[in-house]
Amino acid sequence: MVIMEKRKSLKPLFFFFLFSFFSLHFVLAKPVDKKKILSLKDCIALGLKDKPGLKAARENLKAYLAEKGMALSYYFPDLEMDSNYFRGNFFQVEGPLSEIFPGIFTVYDTQFSANYVFEDFGERYAMVGKAEAKVEQASAEFQKKRLAAIFHISKAYFNLLKAQTVLKLRRDDLRAAQKNLLRAGVLVRTGQRSRIVLSEAEVACDTAQYNLLRAKHQIVDAENHLNQEMGLPNSSHYQIKNETHLFSIHFSLVKALALAFRLNPDLLAQKAKVKESQAEIAEAAAKKWPVLSGSASYGWVDEVFPPKFSTWTFGISLNWPFFNGGRLNEEISAAKALKKRAEDKENALILRIENRIEQNYMAVRDAHAELKASKIEYKASEENYRLAVERYKFGLASSVNLAFARANLSLAAVHRAQAQSDLRISEAAVYYSIGLP
């Protein structure tokens, strides 16, 4: 009896573990929903991760950083070790060593040497300056490609938001047209309206279905465009958040211009080209002056290994090119002309940047006004449609009036969505033209 009671008490526990096992198996076996919800920040992070153009610009920057390191290395001495083995009779030794070096001999030679340039009158400094200017240009190019990727991803993101809004509006239009079709069918069956009312409602329903199909195609195109900008395959599935005021303009036009003169990558690259031209002038001018350098070496030489006879040398050299046919003068003149050209391009670029930022800044103001007007238009169209529905119920308006009011409401809603998208894109364009991330 005790055994039977113990078995009865264990039976519920057994079923509990069995139920837990199958529940866990069901949860683990259930497919995971891979459809993520992405914000604009997430989309930008994905786009910047594996963008081929950004990778190329990043590697280009690394190459110029390495060139700068090479230029800085000329400030340090060169240390070398030279170890040789010779056998032959290609030179003749005289003096005390002639007894240990017969006509055919073997020589083991090991030397440690050092060479250092004491003074070159600014040539190394100019080389480093030129390398730094190239690094600045590569850095500005990388920043430009990064900002371009952010802008194009943002533009595609906002266009997708607009397409989603339009899709929702077209679905609402179709539901309203279907509802109107049912109402028209009831009115025709009860004899309150003629057959033409039903035909007009059917045409309006077909038009709404066609507009919905176009909206679906547009949203597919917008998704594909965003995928391309992010570097994702078109088969990727995700949702995006409806975010607003991501690039709010909270600064004046004067502040925008001041930021652009400090951050715009095109302007920074052009200023770096001016610096590079100045460094080339200094490098060419330094070649007119002498180069003072020194060298020293210490080693061992013998006919057996390891060599025992020590050798050493020490020397100072002065190299001064007095005449080169005017080549250096022409090189300096060419470098000065290139610098003047770079400065003129910088001034022209400043004017273009001013014009571009002013246009984008004014476009934001126009977009705000357009959005405000579209909201007023939508509110008036919404009230007009409500009145048209009431008039249609009491026979004071035809189906044509109702369809016209509905079309105006849908058009106003599209205008509002377009104005919202234009505002977002114009704000992003201001950030892009300034150089803000």
Question: Could you please describe the fold and organization of this structure?
Answer:
The protein is an alpha+beta fold. It contains nine helices and six strands, in the order αβααββααβααββαα. It has helices at residues 2-29, 40-49, 52-72, 123-189, 195-230, 253-263, 265-286, 327-393, 399-434, and strands at residues 36-38, 78-88, 105-119, 238-240, 291-302, 309-319. The strands form two sheets. A four-stranded antiparallel beta sheet has the order 2-3-5-6, with no helix packed on it. Helix 2 (40-49) packs across helix 4 (123-189), helix 7 (265-286) packs antiparallel against helix 8 and helix 8 (327-393) runs antiparallel to helix 9. The chain is elongated, with a radius of gyration of 40 Å. It starts with a helix and ends with a helix.
Q: What is the mean predicted local confidence, pLDDT?
A: 83
Estimate the global geometry from the Cα principal axes. elongated
The strands making up the biggest β-sheet line up spatially as: 2-3-5-6
Stretches where pLDDT is under 50 for at least 5 consecutive residues are 1-8, 24-34
Radius of gyration: 40 Å
Helix-strand sequence: HEHHEEHHEHHEEHH
The helix count comes to 9
Can you give the helix content as a percent range?
55-70%
Distance between the termini: 80 Å
SS-derived structural category: alpha+beta
